[in-house]
Amino acid sequence: MTTMSLSLERIKEAARRIELYAHRTPVLTCSSLDKVVGAQVFFKCENFQKVGAFKFRGACNAVFSLSDQEAAKGVATHSSGNHAQALALAARMRGVPAYIVMPSTAPSVKKAGVLGYGGEVTLCEPTLAAREATLAEVVARTGATVVHPYNDERVIAGQGTAAMELLEEVPDLDVIMAPVGGGGLLSGTAIASTAIRPRIRVIAGEPEGADDAYRSLATGIIQPSLSPKTIADGLLTSLGSITFPIIRERVERIVTVSEAGIVEAMRFIWERMKIVIEPSAAVPAAVLWEGKIDLTGLKIGIILSGGNVDLGNLPWMNDKP
Amino acid sequence: MTTMSLSLERIKEAARRIELYAHRTPVLTCSSLDKVVGAQVFFKCENFQKVGAFKFRGACNAVFSLSDQEAAKGVATHSSGNHAQALALAARMRGVPAYIVMPSTAPSVKKAGVLGYGGEVTLCEPTLAAREATLAEVVARTGATVVHPYNDERVIAGQGTAAMELLEEVPDLDVIMAPVGGGGLLSGTAIASTAIRPRIRVIAGEPEGADDAYRSLATGIIQPSLSPKTIADGLLTSLGSITFPIIRERVERIVTVSEAGIVEAMRFIWERMKIVIEPSAAVPAAVLWEGKIDLTGLKIGIILSGGNVDLGNLPWMNDKP
Predict the structure, then answer these.
(1) d(C-alpha B98, C-alpha A221), whole Å
(2) Residue B1 domain-assigned?
(3) pTM value > 0.90
(4) Domain match, B191 and B126 both
(5) Nearest of A208, A265, A263 to residue A37 by alpha carbon
(6) Do B314 and A314 touch (CB under 8 A)?
(7) Contact list, A267 vs chain B (CB under 8 Å)
(8) Which of A19, A213, A244, B120 has the CA that lies 20 to 30 A from A313?
(9) Is A297 part of the contact surface with chain B (CB cutoff 8 Å)?
């Protein structure tokens, strides 16, 4: 399979399409962090993006890629995460309905988030089969267009705009890093950055407790994500048929990190950089912390994927005092 | 008493002096916050400043105002807060010693912070008398120059640079707000903003549990801060002989806020803006939350004073789940 159809041109189109709606997020640096990790790190702060995560870029590009006729029937997805809120907001911005299928077990704050952005929530049993069946019913009833959270070229192109912006600001990066779950952010990042700067090294971080992408690269076959266990709850899904080939082709390496490493990197970034990031966003920084690969002295760009976290339940709240 | 000696020109001098060392911090906005408070709010993010607080501006201006002979003998203060770290870092940047007197009861993380910036810590009994006596001993021994945390014109001029930068970015503010403790930030903010934009209204926020500045304005006499009780631990001190007259002359009003209001505003800013701020920094936002004064529809600048907070002990950790 080739990924020729997903080119830098598609990402540039996405950038023009979402420009009015998405934030151009800032790039932050932190000298004390650089000292600790021994490299020069540039953080692209998607925690400051609309709905608090990069997911808005892809959802927005997908929604505004539709024809007026398609759009009028709305968009649909099953998700209980950031993609659900992102799709609801993008649809509201276009003035069309968003149908979100969520498991009945989803936290009420997640449902409230989608409702707050004007989405219509349909609850179902908390199994993948029930989610897919319920989504199919919704689509049959409404004619809405399904927007998959990551296995969708419009979504991937949208996610790639973050790396493009980062390279516009810091053109001479040696390495660019992103976390990997379903691979939407990672594949968009890989396409954008290797097209703009062919010498760049694309490296992903993944939790040890959800290392299906690591195993997929190692075996050459998409490995399912079976009972993943990690605090990085944005990275539980397995790769998709579109994201996997892009990652195989353009990502140098996926590095797994421990839960302790994720929490340590996350807390350091909160304490020193004074920004709120979610555990998934700390995963690439944890790669630097744990030092499994030597990136000393390099200029490293990291996509900080999001900042949606339950402030009443932080990982260090159960620390010994 | 006149405050003519402390003019905008002094603040511009301070800005030139600290330019190489201090961050020009970003100004952030948040549309969901604007909706909640019914105004257009521009946050000057001093939580991103060196040492995580505006205090670095004043300390840096004071340290770099000294002659080489004065500077060589070092600087000294008694403080267990952000000013101690700010002075230590500014002194290190100039390559001179910083002598910090701290009560023996100060948290070890505060001592470690000062030591980390190369300061020399002298512990004493936790009383004001002991702190002053110990400081006097240190000065007698070293010849260091005392830099008061707020009752010092060089410090006030430095703090005023934050408001100056904010007005450079958003020139048409109707209102500018800052928290008030000893009044260094507030008086610097008031001088800069009323000089640049005479029509601007300067409004301060103060915790109900530490309302000595409010009472000082009401009575026309500096009221001591007796057993203050508030989560906003940067605002416990009373006004000084230099800050009080400036505040009387240029501040429209001091508005007191409840502890619940401070925590609510702080949590909202963490959740929606994805930035870490300390309770003291949330005090002006709490004024908007509580609505004691009507600022509907106005353009409001707020100095977010700092982001140094113990992540293991957040005010909502004891909330019901």
Answers:
(1) 60
(2) no
(3) yes
(4) no
(5) A265
(6) yes
(7) 311
(8) A213
(9) no
Question: Three-class SS string for A196-236?
Answer: HCCCCEEEEEEEHHHCHHHHHHHHCCCCCCCCCCCCCCCCC
**Residues in chain A closer than 8 A to B312 (CB atoms):** 316-317, 319, 321
Please report whether residue A2 resides in a domain: no
pLDDT tens readout for residues A162-213:
999 999 999 999 999 999 999 999 999 999 999 999 999 999 999 999 999 9
The DSSP output letter for B183 is S
The two structure tokens encoding residue B77: 């203060």
The pLDDT of residue B152: 97
Residue pair A176/A163 in contact by the 8 Å Cβ criterion: yes
- B141 and B233 assigned to the same domain: no
Q: Over chain A, what is the mean pLDDT?
A: 95
Q: Do A52 and B26 touch (CB under 8 A)?
A: no
Q: How many alpha carbons fall within 13 Å on the CB side of residue A56?
A: 26
Q: Is the minimum CB–CB distance between B113 and chain A shorter than 8 Å?
A: no
Residues A107 and A190 in one domain: no
At residue B317 the predicted structure's pLDDT band, cuts being 50, 70 and 90, is: confident
Mean pLDDT value of segment B301-314: 94
Interchain contact, B311 vs A267, CB within 8 Å: yes
Asked if residue B64 and residue B50 are part of one domain, the reply reads no
Q: In what order do the strands lie in the sheet with B75-78?
A: B120-124, B98-103, B75-78, B145-146
Same domain for A222 and A295?
A: yes
Contacts of A311 in chain B (CB under 8 A): 267, 270-271, 314, 316
CATH number at A77 reads 3.40.50.1100
Residue A186 lies in a domain: yes
Q: Which residues of chain B are within 8 Å of residue A47 when distances are taken between CB atoms? A: 274
User: In chain A, whose CA is at the least distance from the CA of B278?
Assistant: A274
What's the pLDDT at A108? 85
| Number of domains comprising chain A | 2
Domain closes at, from A118, A146, A174: A146
Tell me what pLDDT residue B4 has.
53
Residue A288 structural domain: 8-53+152-318
Inter-chain CB proximity A276 and B270 less than 8 Å: yes
At B284 the three-state DSSP class reads: helix
Same-domain status, A261 and A301: yes
At residue A4, the pLDDT reads: 53
What is the band of B318 on the pLDDT scale with cuts at 50, 70, 90? low
pLDDT of residue A1: 42
Q: Which of B96, B116, B146 is the last residue of a domain?
A: B146
Catalytically active residues of A are 55, 305
Q: Is B108 on the interface with A (CB under 8 A)?
A: no
Give the C-alpha separation, A134 to A146, whole Å: 12
B312 to A317: CB separation less than 8 angstroms, yes or no: yes
Sign of CA dihedral B217, B222, B224, B225: positive
Residue A1 falls inside a structural domain: no
What's the whole-number mean pLDDT along residues B111-124? 94
Q: Choose between B44 and B313: higher pLDDT.
A: B44
Which residue in A has a C-alpha nearest to residue B306's C-alpha?
A: A274
What pLDDT score was predicted for residue A188?
98
Residue of B89, B264, B274 for testing the chain A interface, max A β-carbons within 10 Å: B274
Rounded CA separation B5/A320 (Å): 52
User: Is pLDDT above 60 for B42?
Assistant: yes
Instruction: Clarify whether residues A119 and A163 are in a common domain.
Output: no
- Which residues of B fall within a CB distance of 8 Å from A274? 45, 47-48, 52, 275-277, 307
- On whether both A41 and A79 belong to a single domain, the answer is no
